[in-house]
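Sample entry (270 residues):
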Amino acid sequence: MSTAASLAPSTQAATAASLLEASGLSKNFGGVRAVRTTSFTVRQGTVLAVIGPNGAGKSTLINLLTGVHAPDAGRVVFAGTDVTVLPPHKRARLGLARTFQKIRLFRQLSVLDNVIAGFHIRHRIPAWQYVVHGSAFRQARADTRREALELLEFVGLTGQSEAAAGSLAYGQQRMLEIARALALQPRLLLLDEPAAGLNPAEVDHLLGYLSQLRARGLTLLVVEHNMELVMNLADHILVMHHGEPLFSGTPAEVQGNPAVISAYLGEDPP
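Predicted structure, serialized as tokens:
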């Protein structure tokens, strides 16, 4: 089975069970309360979008979920495991992967090598084989290259596999970062403003790729400002305002909520 076909559990396997639970998360930076008593659930096989005006605490929230920041209060449970104090790499081993608002690539490495770098956390070969390249190392290297090329094909970057990552157009770099995150074979993929800086055509392509992942049962949490993408992708939306939840509901419910409309117009919610 190809990597692209096995990125996530099948839709049949995806149930309404909770995959991630955040309870009472709070985070202060000096006198700034970035996130306050925020609780929500991400159900397996669904897409949760987190939206809100600039400064609403969205990126801080995703950093709390992935271990970049430790919460001042609250807890995070992922796949039944309390990960509140775990560092990012241990959360990644459990199946929690992410992309960043500001693209983070190995710009001097090739496109293919950037994706291959994402596989390191999955390697299960004896340490000595990294020094003396035995059969297990050679097989792992061959498998990794094949799967990395499949991921590049999935995101439309096959023709750029040997190019330096830094030479790619901005939208292509976005897709490369997603491909690298998928190399971890995540159970939950968190995307921090994936449409930022993309033109309308690129946003449409991004929506198509994410819709394919959703159809395969991969659970997504998307922090995003682009409302067209959010409304066409999300099953559920969490609206943040001044660091705390303002409203939670379906896309239709969010679109018609007066408090959400006021927040986006820069007014205090009623």
